[in-house]
Design brief:
The complex is a heterodimer.
Chain A: H1 5-19, H2 27-31, E1 45-48, H3 52-69, H4 77-85, H5 99-118, H6 135-139, H7 143-159, E2 164-167, H8 170-183, E3 190-193, H9 194-199, E4 214-215, H10 219-224, H11 230-237, H12 264-278, E5 285-288, H13 291-300, E6 307-310
Parallel strand pairs in A: 1-2, 2-3, 4-5, 5-6
Helix pairs in contact in A: 1-4, 1-7, 3-5, 12-13
Chain B: H1 8-12, H2 28-32, H3 42-50, H4 53-58, H5 60-65, H6 71-75, H7 82-98
The chains are: A mainly alpha, B mainly alpha.
Chain lengths: 315, 100
């Protein structure tokens, strides 16, 4: 019995419309990673997380539930869930992210922020005011909800005098750089991925891997945003040996993540196929640069000798 | 028997990026698709151009299986905006069928 995808899309888009995120998180879950870093509030240039790293532990938990419902008669209750979710935040009760996982994802954000600071890059952070960009709802094709939200995010940036953002993941980068301008008149914002920023300055990695690695290029970075050589250069400058792979760069293959919430079993199948490709030359360490890719590939590589790391773990 | 509707394409989308007419049905996209979707993307183009609304609705779930990874877009010999067209199909299904 397949999942009632209309109810899942409906629930997620209702959340974005009513609560400004597909899975609303507490302020502490969103900003906890920045504690003690003394990042200035506001500024013309801000680090814009788009909540992607912070959302992953909740998405992982939700993915497990959806996976269990995929072939169960219980999935009919999702319609009821959507009905009540309009009144109370039901998604809050069905996502219990593990503390360990939250700490790991927070640490990656801290690593990125600390590396930018060490490299002399000046930036602020909007803390609790920052919003998710609506990437998933755009992908699912719920345009009216997405467009309203995009205006909301842009207004927030304008109200806070932000003219330039440093992003930490491909989905947020794509939204702010390529998609928002299609829907917002006179849109003006400089958008750079932290990988592009770090590639332009001198950096020193703290945790250089002692073995060869293989890169898993993000589809969006590689084919949409031309973020191709920057992550390679960042690692190679530090002496990391990156093994060649046919299915990489512009021909990189997907991690399966984009369909995780609607077709979980298929998503795992795609991720396993990708891990096999990345392991073709026997390389046991895969480097990812997107929180969604990271989660999916790690999940697919569980119980194997293969390690999947976010590039920020080398910082 | 399927009903053809040549005006369907206008109802489907007026987006400038929407270009199913550019598809030459070569199948490069279907051959490359990591998810192995046959219905997508080339069939979508035919269905829209011919106005086969019932076929689109018959395969509505397939459109949501697309990863939007753009491997097909990267290799399309006639630059069809496949991912964008798929997203447009999703928008149509959300509006017309799912009422979202």
């Amino acid at each position: 019995m397949s999942l009632p995808i209309n109810h899942i899309i409906g629930l997620l888009s209702d959340n974005l419309k009513l609560r400004k995120s597909v899975l609303p998180l507490s302020k502490n879950s969103i900003t906890g990673w920045a504690k003690g870093l003394n990042i200035p509030k506001n500024g013309n240039t801000v680090l814009y997380t788009g909540h992607m790293y912070q959302l992953m532990p909740s998405i992982a938990f939700l993915g497990k539930i959806i996976g269990m419902l995929e072939n169960s008669a219980l999935n009919k209750t999702l319609g009821l869930g959507r009905f009540f979710n309009k009144i109370i935040n039901v998604s809050m009760f069905i996502t219990w992210p593990s503390r360990k996982m939250r700490n790991l994802y927070d640490k990656r954000l801290r690593n990125i922020a600390e590396m930018l600071t060490r490299s002399g890059v000046e930036y602020g952070y909007l803390y609790g005011k920052e919003m998710y960009t609506g990437a998933l709802i755009y992908d699912m094709g719920v345009d009216d909800v997405f467009i309203k939200h995009a205006h909301r995010v842009y207004q927030l940036l304008k109200d806070n005098g932000v003219t330039s953002v440093i992003t930490v993941d491909p989905h947020t980068t794509e939204m702010l750089r390529d998609i928002y301008p299609k829907f917002i008149k006179d849109y003006k914002l400089e958008v750079k991925s932290y990988l592009e920023v770090l590639n332009e300055v001198d950096i020193k990695l703290n945790n250089i891997p002692d073995k060869d690695v293989v890169m898993h290029d993000s589809c969006i970075y590689a084919r949409g945003l031309d973020v191709l050589n920057q992550p390679v250069k960042i690692l190679e400058k530090a002496g990391v040996n990156i093994l060649d792979l046919n299915d990489s760069k512009k021909l990189t293959q997907c991690c399966g993540g984009p369909i995780e919430s609607l077709f979980p079993a298929k998503s795992v199948e795609i991720a396993k196929k990708r891990v096999d490709q990345l392991n073709k030359n026997g390389c046991k360490e895969i480097v990812s640069m997107c929180p969604i890719c990271l989660f999916n590939l790690q999940h697919a590589a569980e119980n194997t000798e293969i390690q999947v790391k976010d590039i920020s773990e080398y910082f | 028997m399927s009903k053809l509707n040549p005006d369907f394409i206008l109802e489907f989308s007026t987006d400038e990026e929407f270009n199913p007419n550019a598809c030459i049905n070569c199948g490069t996209c279907s051959g490359l698709c990591p998810i192995g979707l046959d219905a997508l993307p080339r069939k979508l183009s035919r269905y829209i151009v011919l106005g086969l609304e019932d076929k689109i609705l018959e395969e509505k779930e397939s459109y949501f299986q697309c990863l939007l990874c753009k491997l097909c877009v990267e290799n399309c010999p006639t630059q069809v905006n496949i991912s964008s067209n798929v997203r447009t199909a999703r928008n149509y299904i959300n509006r017309k069928i799912y009422k979202i």
